[in-house]
């Protein structure tokens, strides 16, 4: 009784019957495929196949039951396979668009390694003459100071991950202002953009654990919004979304 009532409600909804279960889903797909095809672009033979697939007629009729429950035909398989090929083409197109977008967003100089600045003059020249769109991250260090070696190693990794950011390092004794960079404030990070100092962190390793790595430094800089989106991460995220579809 409940089943008959439920079926009646489904048929009354907008005057249409709703197919449920796997066979109903397949049948709904057949009907949708027929309705979505453009009359001028579909060969007559293909239209006839779609019409037959979308019209199971009455389930009380023996022939109709057989037609309703029959296995997928070769023609149906080819139609579905064609849809999958269209979907794969769309995914490839989206991936290419993402690559093109990141290439456009990543215009300008590319670096990919850590620059060792030898003098204070070279330091000033790097800050003043670099392009305004470039973020420059400078590590002021000294040999034998705790955390400086680990930070230099982290810079090497980050420079490869963020090639549009210029990572530099300079010894405090080579800056020409060694008295301002005593061992108490090292290692120090200075971040510049457009010739202006936008962030500075003294004794920066106090923000990290006893043992830290490039990922920790990356998270710290991202926390202050000092790094752009990593190119490989954005593309990988797009690929993951496509794989789950």
Keywords:
245 residues; alpha/beta; Phosducin, domain 2; Glutaredoxin; 2 domains; five-stranded mixed beta sheet; 51% helix; 11% strand; elongated; disordered N terminus; phosphoprotein; cytoplasm
Largest sheet: 5 strands, mixed
CATH classification class of the largest domain: Alpha Beta
Q: Any idea how many domains?
A: 2
Return the CATH topology of the largest domain. Glutaredoxin
Average pLDDT reading:
74
Structural class based on helices, strands and sheet pairing: alpha/beta
Distance between the termini: 39 Å
Q: Give the CATH H-level superfamily of the largest domain.
A: Glutaredoxin
The number of E-state strands comes to 5
**Poorly predicted ranges:** 2-20
Shape: elongated
Order of helices and strands: HHHHHEHEHEEEHH
Strand order of the largest sheet: 1-3-2-4-5
Radius of gyration: 32 Å
What's the total helix number? 9
Keywords: Cell projection, Cilium, Cytoplasm, Nucleus, Phosphoprotein, Sensory transduction, Vision
Subunit structure: Interacts with CRX. Forms a complex with the beta and gamma subunits of the GTP-binding protein, transducin.
Protein name: Phosducin
Biased composition (Basic and acidic residues): 58-68
């Amino acid at each position: 009784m409940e089943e008959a009532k439920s079926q009646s409600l489904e048929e009354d909804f907008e005057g249409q019957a709703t197919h449920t279960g796997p066979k109903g889903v397949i049948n709904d797909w057949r009907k949708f495929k027929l309705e979505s095809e453009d009359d001028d672009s579909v060969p007559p033979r293909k239209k006839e196949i779609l019409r037959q697939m979308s019209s199971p007629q009455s389930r009380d009729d023996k022939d109709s039951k057989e037609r309703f429950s029959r296995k997928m035909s070769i023609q149906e398989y080819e139609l579905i396979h064609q849809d999958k090929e269209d979907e794969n083409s769309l995914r490839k197109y989206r991936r290419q668009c993402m690559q093109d977008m990141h290439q456009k967003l990543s215009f300008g100089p590319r670096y990919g390694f850590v620059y060792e600045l030898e003098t204070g003059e070279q330091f000033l020249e790097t800050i003043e003459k670099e392009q305004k769109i470039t973020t420059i991250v400078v590590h002021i260090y000294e040999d034998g100071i705790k955390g400086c070696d680990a930070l230099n190693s982290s810079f090497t990794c980050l420079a490869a991950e963020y090639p549009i950011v210029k990572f530099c390092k300079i010894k405090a004794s080579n800056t020409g202002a060694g008295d301002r960079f005593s061992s108490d404030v090292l290692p120090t990070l200075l971040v510049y953009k457009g010739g202006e100092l936008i962030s500075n962190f003294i004794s920066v390793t106090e923000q990290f654990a006893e043992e830290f790595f490039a990922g920790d430094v990356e998270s710290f800089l991202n926390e202050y919004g000092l790094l752009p989106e990593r190119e490989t991460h954005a593309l990988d995220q797009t690929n993951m979304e496509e794989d789950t579809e």
